[in-house]
Amino acid sequence: MDVLPLPAGERLPGGRSDPDFAFASRGRVLKAYGVDERLDVALDDRSFADGRWEEALDRAFRRRKAQGVENPILVGAVPFDGRQHARLSIPQHYDHEDAGLMAADPDAASLNAAALNAIEETVGRSAFEAAVARAIGLFRDTPLKKVVLSRPLDVEAREAFASGRLLRALLRQNPGAYVFSAPVAYGQTLVGASPELLIRKTGRTVVSNPLAGSAPRSTSAEAERLRTAALLASAKDRTEHRYVVDAVRAALAGHCSRLSVPDAPSVIHTPTMLHLSTELTGELADPTVSSLRLAHALHPTPAVCGTPTGLARDAIARLEGYARNWYSGMVGWMDSRGNGEWALSIRCGLVQGRRLRLYAGAGVVADSTPAAEWEETAAKLTTMLNLFGVGAAQPSNAASNAPSNADVPVGMAS
Question: Where would you find the membrane-spanning parts of this chain (predicted)?
Answer without folding.
Answer: none
